Amino acid sequence: MKVTYYGHACFSVELCAKHILFDPFVSPNPLAEHIALDDIQADYILISHGHEDHVADAKVIAKRTGATVVSNFEIVNWFASKGVENGHPMNIGGSWQFDFGTVKYVNAVHSSVMPDGSYGGNPGGFIIDSKEGCFYFAGDTALTMDMQLIGRQFNLDFAVLPIGDNFTMGADDAVIAAEFVGCNQVLGVHYDTFGYIKVDREEAMRKFQDKGISLHLLEIGQNKEF
Ligand code: NI
Ligand code: MN
Predict the structure, then answer these.
(1) Residues, beta carbon < 5 Å, ion ligand 1
(2) Domains along the chain?
(3) What is the mean pLDDT of the chain?
(4) Ligand nearest to the CA of 23
(5) What dihedral do alpha carbons 197, 140, 146, 206 form, nearest 10°?
(6) How far is the CA of 149 from the centre of ligand 1 (A)?
(7) Ligand having the closest approach to the CA of 110
(8) 177 CA from centroid of ligand 2 (Å)
(9) Parts of the chain with a pLDDT under 50
(10) Potential cystine with 110: which of 31, 140, 159, 215 (Cβ 3.0-4.6 Å)?
(11) How much is the pTM?
(12) How far is the centre of ligand 1, averaged over its atoms, from the C-alpha of 28 (Å)?
């Protein structure tokens, strides 16, 4: 599975010949100025919750690529009302078999509202299980005991966890989250984009390393194979 990081909580995974894009927020992110939005490929766009820093570029990319937007019912309907043709609505706890693998939408402890103030349903995260591998994207969330269920049910190759603190888990809680989901390969996201979530990268890496977990902090535009 080839992962490309686009900054903040936006990344894409190439899986079974499909491009799965998560939480597109590129054009408003000054740290991602060097990323050309038109070059980002997507067959599917998976959206964890309705906040601007997770949906900003979803409509433009969905219209250009014809990608299917996958999220909770309320968010998929909101995009449909904005002219996005392909959507697949889910809700917490449900799974669906797509052509690249199975997606399970799981709970996140956070909030969710669309950029125009519309109701954004409940926030979530995703577990993707395919014949090429299995991974978890937590979305924006606090550390929860429920993450232990993921460790019981899935054998993850990597987990994508927020580490920026203030709006989500910080590094200390993300270390425990990695232990709960039973995964020692973590891609850190949701840090450094704005003042509230600036992190000390070395310190964060050390906290994970102390528990035998690798924290990967990619440069924006960088790829990594998991
Ligand atoms: Ni959020
Ligand atoms: Mn966020």
Answers:
(1) 51, 140
(2) 2-225 (3.60.15.10)
(3) 98
(4) 2
(5) -30
(6) 23
(7) 1
(8) 18
(9) none
(10) 140
(11) 0.98
(12) 15
Residue 131's identity, in one-letter code, is: K
Query: What are 203's two structure tokens?
Result: 């310190």
pLDDT confidence of residue 65: 98
Centre of ligand 2 to C-alpha 183, Å, is 23
Q: What is the pLDDT of residue 18?
A: 98
Q: How far is the CA of 40 from the centre of ligand 1 (A)?
A: 22
Are 140 and 161 in contact, with CB atoms under 8 Å apart? no
104 Cβ contact list (under 8 Å, min separation 6):
93, 94, 95, 126, 127, 129
pLDDT tens-digit readout, 41-99? 999 999 999 999 999 999 999 999 999 999 999 999 999 999 999 999 999 999 999 99
Residue type at 158? Answer: F
Say how far apart CA 23 and CA 58 lie, in whole Å: 7
Residue owning tokens 């997606």: 103
Gap from CA of 112 to ligand 1 centroid (Å)? 7
